């Protein structure tokens, strides 16, 4: 499908962190632009697709026919098993029991692992087909809603997880503030987001050395040209500094960063070795120099 045939209703936005309009354009791809706020340094897409347009591009991306669903479920089970297990083990280091909410829970595989580990689990997701699967096939307490629309009681959860979600939201601060409201005192907020500083650097290197380009063609199943910054799907771009600022603005005081464990790779030996080398370098840089050069930010914030 030719991306030029796609027309999206767009709307202007202010900086999601400080609510000003002082952003300067630092990156452009496929007709979309990223701005860096002059006041707080937050990087955000502006303009963005309207809420209905965002729903449409996600619906168009996802084919929920029975056959495609089966392949997606099987792929996520196989690919995610190690990842979800590691996340459960990481969570156990902080709290080994309690009520857990997973925002953007997808088919519920992570929640099921948590339930089997003894946690009381809940989930939200805006995709009706995946919620239906989690309810029917997994027997989970999952609702088809955003976290703000769900209206959970205040101080209800011991842990809230939000993996690879905040980068997609038109108002990420509101969701973080809602997490703070529904967490008990001493509760944990575990989240991951792409590290935009690293991805911007990669995009600059690729522009100078095109043969290093990892993304080619279009994003799978979409009309949009693949790009390092994930536009138009990733509309917020965090650095360690700006995710910390947003969490503190919501009320969190204790904020810790970590480096995710290396993943196994499916037979692509050279790529796998290079990624393991990169993982080793990121851990050394973080442990000994306090530098966060991993491509993903892994954060744990505590409500005190």
TrEMBL record:
Q: Which InterPro entries match?
A: SAM-dependent_MTases_sf (IPR029063)
Q: Which Gene3D superfamilies match?
A: Vaccinia Virus protein VP39
Q: Transmembrane segments in this chain: where?
A: none
Record-linked CDD domains:
AdoMet_MTases
Do you know which Pfam families this protein is assigned to? Methyltransf_23 (PF13489)
Stated name of the protein:
Class I SAM-dependent methyltransferase
């Amino acid at each position: 499908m030719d991306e030029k045939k796609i027309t999206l209703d767009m709307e202007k936005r202010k900086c999601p962190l400080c609510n000003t309009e002082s952003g300067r354009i630092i990156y452009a791809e496929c007709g979309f632009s990223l701005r860096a706020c002059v006041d707080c340094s937050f990087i955000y897409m502006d303009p963005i697709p309207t809420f209905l347009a965002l729903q449409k591009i996600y619906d168009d991306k996802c084919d929920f026919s029975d056959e495609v669903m089966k392949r997606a479920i099987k792929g996520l089970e196989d690919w995610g098993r190690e990842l979800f297990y590691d996340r459960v083990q990481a969570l156990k280091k902080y709290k080994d029991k309690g009520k857990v909410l997973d925002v953007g829970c997808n088919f519920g595989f992570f929640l099921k692992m948590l339930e089997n580990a003894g946690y009381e689990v809940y989930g939200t997701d805006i995709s009706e087909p995946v919620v239906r699967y989690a309810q029917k096939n997994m027997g989970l307490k999952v609702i088809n809603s955003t976290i703000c629309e769900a209206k959970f009681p205040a101080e209800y959860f011991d842990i809230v997880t939000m993996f690879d979600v905040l980068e997609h939201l038109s108002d990420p601060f509101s969701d973080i503030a809602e997490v703070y409201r529904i967490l008990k005192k001493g509760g944990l907020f575990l989240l991951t987001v792409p590290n935009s500083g690293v991805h911007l650097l990669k995009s600059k290197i690729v522009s100078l050395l095109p043969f290093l380009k990892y993304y080619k063609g279009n994003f799978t199943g979409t009309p949009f040209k693949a790009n390092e910054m994930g536009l138009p799907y990733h509309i917020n771009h965090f650095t360690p500094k700006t995710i910390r600022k947003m969490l503190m603005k919501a009320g969190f005081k204790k904020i810790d960063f970590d480096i995710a464990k290396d993943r196994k790779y499916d037979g692509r030996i050279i790529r796998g070795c290079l990624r393991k080398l990169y993982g080793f370098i990121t851990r050394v840089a973080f442990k000994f120099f306090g530098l966060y050069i991993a491509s993903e930010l892994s954060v744990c914030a505590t409500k005190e």
